[in-house]
Design brief:
Strand order of the largest sheet: 3-4-5-6-7-8-11-14
Strand content: 15-25%
Distance between the termini: 25 Å
Number of domains: 1
CATH class: Alpha Beta
Structural class: alpha/beta
Shape: globular
Oligomer: single chain
Order of helices and strands: HEEEHEHEHEHEHEEEHEEEHEH
CATH topology: TIM Barrel
Number of helices: 9
CATH architecture: Alpha-Beta Barrel
Largest sheet: 8 strands, parallel, barrel
Radius of gyration: 17 Å
Number of strands: 14
Helix content: 25-40%
Length: 296
């Protein structure tokens, strides 16, 4: 993957096909004509068996649609509305569960890290380390993830201009990292609301890295549920379709076997049937874009 920003002419050519420059992210090729990379799973580890059930279900759906799956689940969600909110089992038990997922399903995994000391520990299990949106400016955390040798997914902060993510990219590169993904997950729009500016996808792709759209966190309503964050899953599919049309290399989705009973982020999670339908739509849009590129 090139370290320099891609040219405007190359950006335009790739945009016509809905594709970015070709590179590698974790175990998969990404961008260009590579299959869509899907980062997908429950928000947080709620227990070993429920996490394994989710991994099996998501693996089957991803295989059906021919997408490259990285199973997503967090061992700890430090950014909670209330001190009493469920956060997960912690790093020791959480990584143990993720290691079991890898062993049983053969899937690569991605998980959040919130503090510098967690990067090396998490990298012993995770194939991809994820920087939460609120921490995307934390230099020491970015550098620690880069030095782990793992691929890094950086969520764009709700308060950051897309072009300013170049600083986060530079921190990873100067820390020794080369496999970088930038994820759009909405921008603050007044109080307790987010809005998605689809222009951010080509803007961030022009930094010379692949881009991802987080369709589930983009429909959050921060703090709107009183002691927790609300959300409106009705808008997950429309936003994912729009992002696919704008051009993405990866898609981030949180799922749960019963979203209304999820211990974290249920209002903005899909069930497995919803995931299947959404991927049908997104893959059809990507195929249409490829056909347009081939015709022109």
């Amino acid at each position: 993957m090139k370290n320099e920003p891609i040219s405007e002419s190359e950006t335009d050519a790739n945009a016509a096909r809905g594709e970015g420059s070709t590179g590698k992210f974790g175990p998969y090729p990404i961008g260009g004509g590579a299959p869509l990379v899907l980062l997908c799973g429950p928000d947080v580890v709620e227990g070993e068996e429920i996490t394994l059930r989710a991994a099996r279900a998501v693996k089957a759906i991803a295989a059906k649609h021919g997408v490259s799956l990285i199973f997503k689940c967090s061992f700890d969600k430090a950014n909670r509305s209330s001190i009493h909110s469920f956060r997960g089992p912690g790093i020791d038990k959480g990584l143990e569960v993720l290691a079991r997922v890898k062993e049983e399903t053969g899937l690569p995994v991605v998980t959040d890290v919130h503090e510098t000391w967690q990067a090396e520990r998490a990298a012993q299990v995770a194939d991809v380390l994820q920087i939460p949106a609120f921490l995307c400016r934390q230099t020491d955390l970015l550098v620690a993830c880069a030095r782990s040798g793992r691929a890094v997914n950086i969520k764009k902060g709700q308060f950051i201009a897309p072009a300013d993510m170049r600083h986060a990219v530079r921190k990873i590169r100067e820390g020794g990292g080369s496999e970088i993904l930038l994820t759009e997950r909405g921008s603050s729009f007044g109080y307790q609301n987010l809005v998605v500016d689809m222009r951010s996808l080509p803007i961030m792709r022009a930094l010379g890295v692949p881009v991802c759209f987080d369709a589930t966190h983009s429909v959050q309503l921060p703090g709107a549920a009183g002691d927790s964050t609300g959300g409106d899953r009705r808008f997950i599919r429309p936003l994912a379709r729009a992002a696919a049309a704008a051009g993405i290399d990866a898609l981030f989705l949180e799922v749960h076997e019963n979203p209304d009973a999820a211990l974290c982020d249920g209002p903005n999670s899909l069930d497995f049937a919803g995931l299947d339908l959404l991927l049908t739509e997104v893959c059809a849009i990507r195929a249409a874009l490829r056909n347009i590129g081939e015709e022109h």
